[in-house]
Amino acid sequence: MSVPAFLGGLGAAALRRLDPETAHGLAIRALARGLVPPVTHEPDPKLAVPFFDMVLPTPIGMAAGFDKNAEVPDALLSLGFGFVEVGTITPRAQAGNPRPRIFRLPEDGAVINRLGFNNEGHGPPLRRLAGRVGRPGVVGVNVGANKDSDDRAADYVAGIAAFADCAAYFTINVSSPNTPGLRDLQARDALDDLLARVLEARDTLADSGRRRVPVLLKIAPDLTESGLDDVATVSLGRAVDGLVISNTTLSRAGLASPIAHETGGLSGRPLFRRSTAVLAKMRQRVGPALPILGVGGVATAAEAAEKMAAGATAVQLYTAFIYGGSGLPAAIARDLARFVERSGHASVTALTGTRTAEWAARPLD
């Protein structure tokens, strides 16, 4: 990660020369140790977004992948994020794929990663999240399956059971391209079985008097129109609570970087068009009420507004944070409040769905 904005001038040039994963680790440590100044102003009330039984102070969230082990959710919230999603977390710790496995593509405003769900397993993140129960701030938990699991659906169920008392919401990640076979869980029959088991586990916990934690499904941007049909049919049939659209892409269309050939998932600016079109197509399929988090290529308030216009309830970013630094979420929120005011709307929620038809008409190229 490029982190000069995190540590000011101290070692900025040296940090830019570090490999991305080492620099990312330094950013996490800087946040954990309180070296990154928090935002001091309150978000504009026009940015508040109802979200299940919660309210997001702004619709700008941190996507899963940055804080894999729930080490710094409150530090991220203090930077102006309206919500944070930690993970992906698998039942057992795993090292992920061999390094190097993160590649910056500054020419394209993009990143390629092939991390492979590297994380500490349920134990350490659970202790950290349990320790923050009762604090303000919406912190979702993104759960996944171990690479060598014999029953991947059971791994997701285990994640629901483990984090039910400390997750504001769950995201079921079946769309990472870096775990072999994981995206196969998006196929109709496999997805139906997975959601049936996950939602049954969640509902059983809720029936015992615990909070009914919303469950969202995160899908890939590389699905075909028929694949989107399958996901929509199963999601509505199983009454999933929401969608996250989308994960990284395998496409390399239009890239200028000389390292665009690296394998893994591509995120950042090149993903905006495709992910936003997929979002709009899914919005048309699932109707206006289902919450959708829009992810992919958001780096400015204008892009956040456009993602919401395509049908997103709120948005998430990660790659832009790599390039923009710790001041980015608050800056986007301030600019978005001005955009809403200039548009004559009373609230940012009025943007959602205003351009769905136009985005949905775009081909998946």
Low-confidence stretches: 1-13
Average pLDDT value?
A: 93
Q: H/E series, N to C?
A: HHHEEEHEEEHEHEHEHEEHEHEHHH
Give the tally of structural domains. 2
Side by side, the strands of the main sheet go: 3-4-7-8-9-10-12-13
Name the structural class.
alpha/beta
Largest sheet: 8 strands, parallel, barrel
Distance between the termini: 29 Å
Tell me, what's the shape? Answer: globular
SS elements, strand count: 13
**Radius of gyration, CA atoms, in whole angstroms:** 19 Å
Strand content: 5-15%
What would CATH call the homologous superfamily of the largest domain? Answer: Aldolase class I
CATH-scheme architecture of the largest domain: Alpha-Beta Barrel
Provide the fold topology.
Elements lengths: L3 H4 L4 H6 L2 H13 L16 E3 L2 E3 L3 E3 L10 H5 L5 E7 L12 E4 L4 E4 L9 H9 L7 E5 L8 H12 L6 E4 L14 H20 L7 E5 L5 H13 L4 E4 L19 E4 L3 H15 L5 E4 L5 H10 L3 E4 L1 H6 L3 H16 L12 H5 L5
Parallel strand pairs: 3-4, 3-13, 4-7, 7-8, 8-9, 9-10, 10-12, 12-13
Antiparallel strand pairs: 1-2, 5-6, 6-11
